[in-house]
Amino acid sequence: MAVTAHLIVRRGPGADAPSSRYAVPYTPGQSVLDGLRFVRQALDPSLSVRHSCISANTCKECMILVDGKVAYACTARLEPREMVLQPLPNKPHLRDLVTEIAPPDERLDHALRTLGRAPGGTPTR
Ligand code: FES
Q1: Domain extents for the chain?
Q2: Is 57 in the pocket of ligand 1 (CB under 6 A)?
């Protein structure tokens, strides 16, 4: 019988956020990000997850709460049990597991203001 991990994905911060439950195949050594990528590829392409380096642990974009603790999804181990995943609670929530993690002075709206442009292309001066 195939071993399964059950991912409960809260699609927002807080305990009352809407959630989705996914059963994903489990193989020892897999990461939570591996499970989330399986969900996107095979079960629910609408699930938003941010990652760039895919398990090199260099981009730091996959940070989420795993069972209530801050973790990198690419280094947290997938386990054959129920795991609760949630976006970071202290960052602006964008969608599902994705939060705004760029420092304020590195965001596009800041760059546009610095260049004298409002977001949307309208000159501000
Ligand atoms: S995917 Fe880059 S640090 Fe996790």
Answers
A1: 4-114
A2: yes
- The number of beta carbons lying within 10 Å of the beta carbon of residue 26 is 18
Q: Which CATH number fits domain 4-114: 3.30.200.20, 3.40.50.720, 3.10.20.30, 3.40.1400.10?
A: 3.10.20.30
Which ligand 1 atom sits closest to the C-alpha of 75?
Answer: 4
Q: What is the pLDDT along the chain (125 residues), one digit of tens a residue?
A: 689 999 999 999 988 999 999 999 999 999 999 999 999 999 999 999 999 998 788 899 999 999 999 999 999 999 999 999 999 999 999 999 999 988 778 778 888 888 888 766 665 55
Tell me if 52 CB under 6 Å of ligand 1.
Answer: yes
Distance between CA atoms of residues 69 and 49, nearest Å: 17
Coil, strand or helix at 112: helix
> CA 63, 79, 12 angle in degrees (round to 5)?
40
Is the minimum distance from the CB of 64 to ligand 1 under 6 angstroms?
no
pTM comes to 0.84
> In angstroms, what is the span from residue 118 Cα to ligand 1's centroid?
31
